[in-house]
Amino acid sequence: MAAERPVKARVDDRPADTEHDGVDIAEHGRSAEGETISLDRRLFMQLHAYGGSRDTGALVSALEAAGIEGALYEDVNDPTGVALLTLSESPEAFVSEYRSFLRSGPFSALEPKPAFTMLGRTYAIGYEQDLAETLVDRPRRRVLDPKLPWAIWYPLRRAGSFEQLSKREQDTILMEHGGVGMNFGRAGLGYDIRLACHGLDRDDNDFVVGLLGPELHPLSVIVQRMRKTKQTSLHLERLGPFFVGRKRWPGLP
Questions:
Q1: How many CB atoms lie within 10 A of CB 52?
Q2: Beta carbons of 145 and 190 less than 8 angstroms apart
Q3: Whole-structure pTM value
Q4: If you ran DSSP here, which 8-state letter would residue 244 be given?
Q5: What is the pLDDT of residues 103-131, one digit of tens each?
Q6: Would you put residue 33 in left (φ > 0), alpha (ψ -120 to 50) or beta?
């Protein structure tokens, strides 16, 4: 896999090496002392879905032999469907080693489903105290966790009405929406992965969301409960398509 550039979180004094001609592209959080902290790292994730898979075991063997980091799901809604989620801190991985891997071996014989292709990057909201945990470690841990085999992945685009709201109104709406996921997470029923995909998605979506859990039913309930929040009911332009699957690899211990 491509080497990842370690960068430690720092108090946000904005030295020249984290800005590009005055444009700040780092992720920001806030320390326990209230100081703004920054980290120029993020994890990219990409989902590719396929049909025509009649031997998932061969796919698993190929992934293990290649040392790929990610997760292979079997599609609930297609008896020959699978999806491969790959991840890297460097987007170069998706057009180099991952691209070469998918063009050879058993994956090359499958039928691509481009409508389900999703690509996004982790991001910080601004209050996180541990940016490395938020941006890299926790999302990677959740994807690879064999105790979270069920997954629902989907993109979404916010309506322009949300952008017209004040910062205070936006924060209130996001707290209501996020609270649903936090309640399920505290109960151990489901966890989310939030990825920004501005400019990375062929359909001009804003975000990719992954819901991961030990069982499928609670993940469906999360989606159902979130339909009632103001963000979903009033300020979303579109949602989906939804990929629903159970992780075949890495498998249960």
A1: 13
A2: no
A3: 0.87
A4: E
A5: 999 999 999 999 999 999 999 988 899 99
A6: alpha
